[in-house]
Amino acid sequence: MKTWIPVAQANEFMPSGGGCVLIGNKQIAIFNFNKTEWYAVQNRCPHRQQMVLSRGIIGSQQGEHKVTCPLHKNSYSLVTGEHLGGHTHWKLETYAVKVEAGMVYVGIEPMELKEWQLETQSLPGISHHNMGGSPPG
Ligand code: FES
Fold it and tell me: What dotted CATH number matches 3-121?
């Protein structure tokens, strides 16, 4: 069963923008589209292992929301995490995200709680940075 971790107030995000939150030892990029659709993926771009995706450009491709890395413009589905250029081994981890009473929550599986060293911290153990992100492209 998922543990829902409160990570930020929804109003800390620009409309149709992104931001990075730190959950335990894990950087998570969170994006919204008009504050109605929310996505959470790993912040690390699989191309060069850079922690930059929260600063990527969001948009849509064939009806599916995506993020484009600001460094070398690789694009990933925000729904499946798949690379949209066909590199099947470059896949983002995706996470459940929800907003309740103005608070953004990320859903963490028990295994991830352990991997992210959250078990040893008192929850929520959150710090966040780089709020703001980029407008959709
Ligand atoms: S680091 Fe993201 S596309 Fe190169």
Answer: 2.102.10.10
Domain boundaries of the chain, sorted by first residue: 3-121
Q: Which two tokens stand for residue 68?
A: 């484009």
Ligand 1, CB within 6 Å, residue ranges = 45, 47-48, 50, 69, 71-72, 74
CB atoms within 10 A of CB 74: 19
pLDDT in tens, 27-53: 999 999 999 999 999 999 999 999 999
As beta bridge partners, residue 59 has: 66
What pTM did the predictor assign?
A: 0.87
Q: Of ligand 1's atoms, which has the minimum distance to the CA of residue 72?
A: 3
How many Å separate Cα 86 from the centre of its chain? 21
Q: What is the pLDDT of residues 109-128, one digit of tens each?
A: 888 878 877 655 444 434 45
In eight-state DSSP terms, residue 43 is S
